[in-house]
Amino acid sequence: MRDNVDGALYASMLYDFYGELLSDSQREVTALYNEDNLSLSEIAEELGQSRQAVHYTLKKAEAALNEFEDKLGLIKTYENNQKLAEKAADMIDRLNLKENEADKLKCLIRELAE
To answer: In this structure, are 60 and 85 located in the same domain?
Structure first.
């Protein structure tokens, strides 16, 4: 997965999947950095911490998020499910089903993939 998406998107996905497993401090810094696009200096100012402390917290959070993915593989599974759903939708298109039947099947596949 890391090779298939840019770093910002991957970091956002890691946070979406595993953010609740971080400490409150790590979750706050990571959200401000990735979701709100604040710089380390801006985060430090907002939290009343040094830039170095924010940097350290962010690096620890990133390491933890990557470790969660290495052990649990939820993002990898999600990506594989998306690929399978695309293949299934392509197969449905080739079957020449009635439009409403094809749409219902594709809808079910999308629900399963999410």
So the answer is: no
Identify the CATH number of the domain in which residue 51 sits: 1.10.10.10
43 three-state secondary structure: helix
Both tokens assigned to 85 = 């759903």
- The answer to whether 34 and 65 are in contact (CB under 8 A) is no
Amino acid making up residue 77: T
Lookup: tokens for 29: 């810094």
Instruction: Kindly report the pTM of this predicted structure.
Output: 0.78
Residue 58: count other Cβ atoms within 10 Å of its Cβ. Answer: 18
25-77 pLDDT per residue, tens: 999 999 999 889 999 999 999 999 999 999 999 999 999 999 999 999 999 99
Token pair belonging to 100 = 């409403």
